[in-house]
Write a structure and sequence with these properties.
Elements (H helix, E strand, L loop, with lengths): L2 H8 L6 H6 L4 E5 L16 E6 L2 E7 L5 E5 L13 E3 L10 E3 L6 E2 L5 E3 L20 E4 L2 E4 L13 E2 H4 L5 E8 L3 H8 L44 H7 L4 E7 L2 E9 L4 E10 L3 E7 L2 E11 L2 E10 L6 H8 L3 E2 L4 E2 L11 H6 L11 H9 L17 H18 L17 E2 L3 E6 L3 H15 L20 H4 L6
Parallel strand pairs: 11-21
Antiparallel strand pairs: 1-10, 2-3, 3-4, 5-6, 6-7, 7-8, 9-10, 12-18, 13-14, 14-15, 15-16, 15-22, 16-17, 17-18, 19-20
Helix pairs in contact: 4-8
Length: about 475
C-alpha cells in the first residue's frame, strides 16, 4: 500500500475523507454505565462527561427530564470548556429550564443546542436567538449511547436492528476498553479469520468450560457445536490442530459474511461463520447461544475504544457478574486496560513456552488482541506489510473503505448501515462455530443458526436474506487484488 493511501484510510479527524465516511454511521460515544453513580460516584451530583470522538471534543450530559445531549465542547461565546458547565434543572427552579450553563458568562444550552439564556446581555437582547451550539442526535441502545455526527441538518439513517439492539436488556450486556492505536488496525485484527489459530492458541486443553454469563476470555475453552466420533472438542484443540482455514466471504447489505472452513476428516469440517459490518463492527460467536458484536470507535487517530455487546439467545445474563469479571483487567471510570506497552502487556516467557502461543495470559484474551493492535504502532505502516491469501478479508474490507470514501467525496451515500435504502437488511447477523458434515456444511450451519433463534426466549426473527449491497465486493476475486499494488 502506498503511504498516501494509508493516510487516507486511517485519518479520521474533522474534514478528513475517511472521517467524513465514519460520521455517516451511528457510533457509540459512552456506556450508560458511565453515568451510574455506583460505578462513578461523580455522576450522583452531576451527570456530565467530557468525551472525545473522532478527534472532536464533546460534552455528553443528561438533563433533568432524562434527555441526553451531546454538544461541541467549546462554548460558542468565547470557547470555554462546557464539560465544566453547571447542569441545571427547571424542576429545581433553575431559570431558563433544563440545560448546561457555561460558568464563564452564564450562557445556557439545551440538549438540542438551543441557546436558552445569555444573562450578561442587556435586557431585550436578541443575541440568544441567533446562537445555537452544534448538537448531535443521541439514542440509547443495548446499554450504550450512540451519536450520529454526519453533516449538520442531514437526516440520520435508521438505527440498525441487529440482534444486540433488538434483544431485551435482560439478555444483553455492554462493555468497552481503550486501545492506544488507530481504529482501522483494531478492526482488521477482529475480522481476520486466521489469527485465532495462532494468537489465541492454547498449548494444552482443559475440561470444557461452560461459557455462561460470567465469560470473559475463556470462549476458546468452550466446545464447538457438533461432535467428532461422539466426542465434543474444545475450540482450543480445533484452532491449534487445523491452522490453515479455507477463507471465503459473501457480500451482505451490512457488509461481509465471512466463512472459515477447517477440514478435519473426509467426513467432517469445522465451520466458523462471522460477520464484518461496515465500517468497523464484527459479529462473532462466543458460544452456541451467545454472540459478541464489537464496534471500534476512534477517539482520535491514535486511540480507539472497542465496545462489546454480548447477546444471549438462551437465559438472561448476569450483568453484574460480567462487569465484575472484566473490571479485573480494565480500570473504570475511563476503561483503561491494566496491561499495555508499559508492562509488555503482561508477557511471560515461561508461559509462552509451556501454556500459550503468545504468553500473555489465559483469562483475558482481549489482551492478545490488544498486543496485536498496539504493537503495530500508533498507526500501522502498511507500506511495509506483505499480505497473503489468508488476508483476503483484510483486502476486501480496504477496497470497500476506499470505495466508500470515493462515494462520499462524490456526494453519495456509503454502504451498509449508513444507507437508509438498505435498512431492511440491517438485521441478525447469524454466526456459528461448529463441526459439520463436510458435504453439507452450508446447510448444517444455517440449520444451527435457525435452531438458536427458534430456541431464544425472546423474539429473534431470522435476518433478511442475502442481497448484494452497492459498493461491496462481489466475491473472492475482488479480495485477491492487493490494495495499492
Amino acid at each position: 500500500m502506498k503511504a498516501e493511501q494509508n493516510e487516507l484510510i486511517t485519518r479520521i479527524g474533522p474534514g478528513t475523507a475517511c472521517g467524513e465516511v465514519l460520521r455517516r454511521y451511528w457510533q457509540p460515544v459512552a456506556l450508560v454505565d458511565e453515568f451510574n453513580p455506583a460505578l462513578d460516584p461523580r455522576m450522583a451530583q452531576r451527570p456530565v462527561k467530557a468525551v472525545r470522538v473522532m478527534g472532536q471534543d464533546l460534552v455528553l450530559f443528561r438533563d433533568g427530564q432524562g434527555r441526553w445531549g451531546l454538544l461541541d465542547r467549546d462554548c460558542p461565546h468565547r470557547g470555554a470548556d462546557l464539560s465544566f458547565g453547571r447542569l441545571e434543572s427547571a424542576a429545581e427552579g433553575a431559570p431558563g429550564g433544563d440545560g448546561l450553563r457555561c460558568p464563564f458568562h452564564g450562557w445556557k444550552f439545551a440538549v438540542d443546542g438551543t441557546c436558552l439564556q445569555t444573562p450578561a446581555e442587556p435586557t431585550g437582547s436578541k443575541l440568544c436567538e441567533r446562537v445555537r451550539q452544534r448538537s448531535y442526535p443521541v439514542v440509547e441502545q443495548c446499554g450504550a449511547l450512540f451519536a450520529w455526527m454526519g453533516p449538520e441538518g442531514a437526516e440520520p439513517p435508521p438505527f440498525p436492528a441487529f440482534d444486540c439492539f433488538t434483544a431485551p436488556a435482560s439478555h444483553t450486556f455492554a462493555f468497552k476498553g481503550l486501545w492506544n492505536a488507530n481504529w482501522l488496525q483494531a478492526f482488521e485484527v477482529g475480522i481476520d479469520p486466521a489469527h485465532p489459530s495462532f494468537l489465541h492458541r492454547f498449548l494444552q486443553d482443559e475440561a470444557l468450560a461452560d461459557i455462561g454469563s460470567n465469560a470473559a476470555g475463556k470462549q476458546f475453552r468452550s466446545a464447538s457445536a457438533g461432535a467428532i466420533d461422539g466426542e465434543r472438542w474444545p475450540m482450543t484443540r480445533i484452532m491449534r490442530e487445523f491452522a490453515q482455514p479455507e477463507i471465503s466471504f459473501e457480500p451482505r447489505p451490512y457488509g461481509l459474511q465471512i466463512t472459515a472452513l477447517r477440514p478435519m476428516t473426509e467426513e467432517l469440517t469445522h465451520v466458523r461463520v462471522t460477520n464484518a459490518i461496515f465500517p468497523a463492527t464484527f459479529v462473532i460467536p462466543l458460544s452456541e447461544t451467545m454472540t459478541i458484536t464489537q464496534m471500534h470507535v476512534p477517539v482520535d487517530d491514535t486511540h480507539t475504544y472497542w465496545y462489546s455487546f454480548f447477546t444471549s439467545f438462551a437465559g438472561p445474563l448476569d450483568r453484574e457478574a460480567m462487569r465484575a469479571q472484566r473490571q479485573q483487567f480494565i480500570t473504570l471510570p475511563d476503561y483503561i486496560p491494566n496491561a499495555g506497552r508499559h508492562n509488555n502487556w503482561g508477557f511471560n516467557a515461561e508461559e509462552q513456552r509451556t501454556q500459550t502461543y503468545l504468553g500473555m495470559g489465559e483469562e483475558d484474551i482481549n489482551v492478545h488482541d490488544q498486543w496485536a493492535v498496539e504493537s503495530m504502532g500508533a498507526i500501522q505502516d502498511r507500506t511495509r506489510e506483505h499480505l497473503g491469501t489468508s488476508d483476503k478479508i483484510i483486502m476486501a474490507n480496504r477496497r470497500v473503505l476506499l470505495k466508500a470514501i470515493d462515494a462520499v467525496q462524490a456526494g453519495g451515500v456509503p454502504p451498509g448501515p449508513a444507507d437508509a435504502s438498505q435498512a431492511a437488511g440491517m438485521t441478525g447477523p447469524d454466526t456459528v462455530d461448529g463441526v459439520a458434515p463436510a458435504g453439507t456444511w452450508a446447510q448444517w450451519w444455517r440449520e444451527q443458526a435457525q435452531a438458536k433463534r427458534d430456541a431464544a426466549p425472546w423474539n429473534a426473527p431470522a435476518p433478511a436474506g442475502p442481497a448484494p449491497a452497492e459498493g461491496l465486493p462481489q466475491g473472492p476475486e475482488d479480495a485477491a487484488r492487493t490494495v495499492g499494488a
